Fold this sequence. Notes:
- The chain is an alpha+beta fold.
- The protein contains 13 helices and eleven strands.
- Helix 1 (9-16) packs across helix 12 (354-377), helix 3 packs antiparallel against helix 13 (387-404) and helix 8 (200-215) runs parallel beside helix 9.
Amino acid sequence: MVKRFGVTHLDVFLKLLPIDLLQKVWNERRNGDWSYAAGSRMINHGNFSLPLVPRFLAVKLRILARHHTFISTGTRQRNLREDIVEAIEYFKIKSDDTKTHVGINQVEAFLAKFLLSHEYFADLSEFFRWYIRNVGEFVSGDEKLWPFTGYTSDVKHVPGKNPPIGLWMYVLACMLDEDTPYVIDIKMWESEVHSGEKDRVNQTVMRWAAIVEQLQIKDGACILSTDSYYLDNARRDRLEESGVKFVASVNKQRFQPLVKMVEPYVQKEGHWAAVINEATNELFVHVWDPNKDIGRKFVLGNAMEHHVGNGVGPHEKPLYDLYKLTFRAVDKFNQLAHGKDWTHKHGGFKRNGSAGSEDEYALVTLLLNSCILHRRHENLFGTAFNFSDMILKLSDDLFAYSVTVN
């Protein structure tokens, strides 16, 4: 399922974020603006430098990893300049060569301007998928509302989320083993003003379906699982036409004819009822889950085979159990990403902070993916690992790489 490449965490990181992409981000900086010190100087005269960019990234990763440690231990938060100074002094000890040292103002400019904003999400996703031979039996798509309260037409307010305001990130994930999720696609929701798309959810669902078609072992071998936000009748029809198997929790208001067929038969917690369309192999199930946080649930899908005369166990709930099993990939990854955000402010001084938050999400996803892949290469399965320790070690290796590379 996973390709093997290299032996170190740094190898994996540079495969997910290759030098070509680093150079692309640098070269596409608006008007080539790599000025610092109030605009009086330019980082490396505005030219991309292979040693310099990884060196700056090493500083950034150290700051991120140390802040995650501060959060987990309840230690006092530090301001950004303090963190930059600490990282610079730390790496000076690693190398006596003054040519490898970087200045505070240069780092501040790099952190503000070298950003993996949403324009690069498609590139990153391609590199994420490069590692995957196939996606196994299922993938799951959902969203992550990444905290951001600054000004942009792309910000969303979703009262049911915690926090309720932020940038809406579409995420598609698979499972590498029983416990380990891995993200294969990220995309940011953009307002119609920016995207030009009227039905962005439809575009996203069909994008996910296309990825399933690309990476499944054979037709119908992989199930696309989503929650109730993503499926309506139009998208259901398009998934049917694509041939991609799906299972989804659904909003009952969108499927009233089906709801009326099953809802009257579910009168107690733990009970369920289902109806099948034999022409399309679709099963529609209504379950009253005893879990008070779930309650009544409606699930639709065409991912199960129907065999006449086959009964189910007393505690089995057809399709609903499959939905819970398949949706966990993205759910697990979103849990891993929680609390690993960059705690310093983005933007300010007439600079919009949304690109910084986009970069933050991309970087956290990239780093988690790299940790997961490296642990698999080391035959360390499961998701229990110390994120801070792994990223601190990666930042050391990235700095050492920057010292030796030309």
